[in-house]
Amino acid sequence: MNLQISRSPIGLDGIPAAETVLSHVDGERGELIIAGERVGDLVRQTGFEGVTARLWSGGTGQPVAEATVRASLGAARQRAFARLPDLLGITRGLSIVDGVRAAIAGLRAENGLPHEATIVGALPVIAGALVQQSQGGDPIAPDPDVSHAADTLSMMLGRKPDAREVAALDAYFVTVCDHGMNASTFTTRVVASTQADLFAAVTAGYCALTGPLHGGAPEPVLEMLDAIGSSERIKPWVDAALARGERLMGFGHRIYRVRDPRADVLKGAIERLAGGGTDLPFAGEVEAYIRAALRRKNPDRPLDTNVEFFTAILLDALKIPRQAFTPVFAVARAAGWTAHAREQQRGGRLIRPSSAYIGPMPE
Ligand code: ACO
User: Fold this and answer.
1) 303 lines ligand 1 (CB under 6 A)
2) Is residue 354 part of a domain?
């Protein structure tokens, strides 16, 4: 991937766009707090349904129980499966990432289900069906009685996952479910600030996620690891890419000035999953060389590993096709998006920044 982007002070760095109880990113200390807990502690304490209950409670200002989340997500997966013929109709010929974009836009209110459950429940059903379709298979029916992570894996892989695989995806879901005012959450909140509904807000948030500077990075991370190929090629490959002015995917962050805390949480999840079969030692060599090379290239700008580097390795170890990495990210982040949209609708003002006009003026 060859991305060369000019720098500009424009970009809303450090400007608060909303007040939130949902999550906080401390870029200097390398800390991420979600619903009052550090991300590493949260992964040890609870699973996706638990953290989603905390986020939805914060977003709506009403207590939402974990059991309610579990039941409503199970029901929402079934409703989405029943609607798949309609939802997939418009995705023909599109990639998995673009197909999910089109299908989310087709979601609508379901009787008896909160909109947030309809959305978060539908995402893995849509993404799983598109993965199966891309392999010439039929969609796999969801099971409302298993966890969201377990069902996501079943629908993606076409087989029942084992407990270690489920634990790894669940840890990933908790790790990436929310992250302050990132680009997709900001987008979601901008749309919700107009009092548009959650379906519109989340469709917009997903679109923002798909770019390679945000949630579209993990597939290019794997492409980079494939292109490097072996230990001897790390130095020449990385040096040449940096000399061409390219950005190395999975490194750098707008907020973190130290290592992204999610990287180590995911590295731990990969190690627990591994037992063998992952490319972690090679990836570790690549990571170490790139960190050092970026320090040499930009000594004044700390550029360290971000969440997407280990996301790529974790999702690859789970045998999720790389074309579905961004939609799987969206399954988890939709918990945060929906909570932020509710919080914005309840108390936020219309988000309407200004621009710096640099065009011609009339005489
Ligand atoms: N590789 C090489 N150089 C980089 C990288 C990188 N990954 N990231 C930043 N730089 C360099 C820039 O080229 C720039 O150099 P210069 O001063 O010589 O021109 C300098 O660091 C500062 O760059 P900015 O554009 O100001 O950094 P910004 O805060 O806007 O960028 C971003 C953050 C977009 C994540 C960037 O680091 C990047 O493009 N990373 C690669 C893509 C990626 O990993 N995306 C996933 C992010 S995590 C997430 O969204 C879930």
Assistant:
1) yes
2) no
Question: What is the whole-number distance in angstroms between the Cα of residue 246 and the centre of ligand 1?
Answer: 10
Residues 225 and 311 in one domain: yes
Q: Is the shortest distance between the CB of 219 and ligand 1 below 6 Å?
A: no
CATH of the domain at 169: 1.10.580.10
pLDDT tens-digit series, residues 8-44: 568 888 889 999 999 999 999 999 999 999 999 999 9
Give per-residue pLDDT as tens, 318-338: 999 999 999 999 999 999 999
The answer to whether 349 touches 261, Cβ cutoff 8 Å, is no
Same domain, yes or no, for 188 and 252? Answer: no
Shared domain for 73 and 177, answered yes or no, is yes
For the chain, the domain total comes to: 2
Q: Are residues 64 and 187 in the same domain?
A: yes
Active site residue 148: no
Ligand 1 centroid distance, CA of 266 (Å): 21
**Positions of E strands within the chain:** 23-26, 31-34, 37-38
Residues 193 and 299 in one domain: no
- The alpha carbon of 260 and the centre of ligand 1 are apart by a number of angstroms equal to 13
Q: Identity (one letter) of the amino acid at 200?
A: A
Q: Tell whether 161 and 281 lie within a shared domain.
A: no
104 pLDDT above the threshold of 90 = yes
The CA distance from 100 to 334, in Å, is 13
Would you say the C-alpha torsion 260, 249, 328, 140 has a positive or negative sign? negative
Q: Is residue 308 annotated as part of the catalytic site, yes or no? A: yes
Cα–Cα distance for residue pair 249/217, rounded to 1 Å: 6
- In the set 49, 110, 165, 308, the catalytic residue is 308
**Tokens in use for 218?**
């993990």
- Residue 263 within any structural domain of the chain: yes
Q: Let me know if residue 139 belongs to a domain.
A: yes
| CA of residue 306 to ligand 1 center, whole Å | 10
Instruction: Tell me if the pTM is above 0.90.
Output: yes
pLDDT single digits (tens) 247-282: 999 999 989 988 899 999 999 999 899 875 566 789
Residue type, 131: V
Together in a domain, 175 and 300: no
- Within-domain flag for 361: no
State if residue 250 touches ligand 1 by the CB under 6 angstroms criterion. Answer: yes
